[in-house]
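testing teh design pipeline on a random one, pls ignore if ur not involved
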C-alpha cells in the first residue's frame, strides 16, 4: 500500500475510535510516557495539541516541565515555551491547529531534551508516516535537531512492523502507544 492510501486508511480507522475508547487510550498512553525514563529525565519537552483524533496529551501539560509547542511559519516549525499560567493565548494556526502566540518566548534547539512527535503511523524501526507536509521531516533532518531524543505518538492500531521509508526519513528514538513505550530498532545513535 502506498503512503497516500495508508494515510487514508489509518486516518479512517483512528477517526472511527469511539470517544470513550479514544480518551481511555490517550490516558493510558500518557501514563506510559509519564513513567518512561526518557520523559522523566527531560526538563524541556516539545509537544503538540492533538487534531483529527490523535492521542490527547493534555494530561501531561500540568507536569513540572518546560513545555514547547510549534507554530508554523511557511514550511518550518518555530517552537515557543508555554505553561498553564501563560498570559498569551493560543490561537488557531494555518492548519486549524492551536499554536502559541507569536510573542511567546522562543525555544532554541539546545534548550530541548525531548520531542513528542505526532504521526499517523510509526513502525518498529522508528520510522513515521506523517501528514505529508514534511514539517517534522525537515526539523529532524536539520543538524541542530538531529540528535534530540524523539518519541513518536500513535495508537497501537498505527504501530506497524514496517513502513515505506524515503531517503530523508530519520528514525525516532522510541514510539509510545496505549500498550507501552517501545525503543526503536533503528534508533542507534539517536538522542
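output:
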Amino acid at each position: 500500500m502506498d503512503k497516500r492510501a495508508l494515510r487514508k486508511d489509518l486516518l479512517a480507522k483512528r477517526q472511527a475510535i469511539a470517544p470513550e475508547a479514544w480518551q481511555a487510550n490517550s490516558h493510558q498512553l500518557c501514563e506510559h510516557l509519564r513513567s518512561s525514563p526518557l520523559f522523566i529525565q527531560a526538563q524541556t519537552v516539545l509537544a503538540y495539541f492533538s487534531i483529527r483524533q490523535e492521542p490527547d496529551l493534555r494530561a501531561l501539560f500540568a507536569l513540572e516541565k518546560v513545555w514547547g509547542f510549534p507554530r508554523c511559519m511557511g514550511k518550518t516549525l518555530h517552537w515557543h515555551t508555554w505553561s498553564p499560567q501563560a498570559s498569551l493565548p493560543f490561537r488557531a494556526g494555518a492548519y486549524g491547529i492551536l499554536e502559541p502566540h507569536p510573542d511567546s518566548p522562543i525555544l532554541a534547539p539546545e534548550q530541548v531534551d525531548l520531542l513528542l512527535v505526532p504521526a499517523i503511523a510509526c513502525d518498529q524501526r522508528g520510522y513515521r508516516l506523517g501528514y505529508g507536509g514534511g514539517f517534522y521531516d525537515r526539523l529532524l533532518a536539520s543538524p541542530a535537531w538531529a540528535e534530540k531524543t524523539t518519541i513518536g505518538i500513535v495508537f497501537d492500531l498505527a504501530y506497524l512492523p514496517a513502513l515505506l521509508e524515503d531517503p530523508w526519513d530519520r528514525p525516532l528514538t522510541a514510539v509510545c502507544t496505549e500498550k507501552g513505550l517501545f525503543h526503536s530498532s533503528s534508533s542507534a545513535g539517536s538522542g
